[in-house]
Amino acid sequence: EEYVGSTQGVFQFELSGDGGGTWYIDLKTKGGSAGFGKPPVTADVVMSMSSADFVKMFT
């Protein structure tokens, strides 16, 4: 809840390569959510990158 309240954004990731696809993190809707596919609401930010770059970015 703390991150949802302070972030207020929906992020969509378009990943290519192994494990790729469309993923999202919703830090705007109460309770927040994350999953595979397009977010249930319009994304505020869409990032396109390889799955390898995504792993480097978040680890």
TrEMBL record:
Keywords: NADP, Oxidoreductase
GO molecular function: oxidoreductase activity
Record-stated family: Belongs to the short-chain dehydrogenases/reductases (SDR) family.
Keyword NADP appears in the UniProt entry: yes
Annotated ranges, domain SCP2: 4-59
Pfam family, any one: SCP2
Organism: Cardinalis cardinalis
Name of this chain's protein: HSDL2 protein
UniProt xrefs under SUPFAM superfamilies: SCP-like
Keyword Oxidoreductase included in the entry's annotation: yes
Gene Ontology CC terms, in alphabetical order: mitochondrion
Domain of life of the organism encoding this protein: Eukaryota
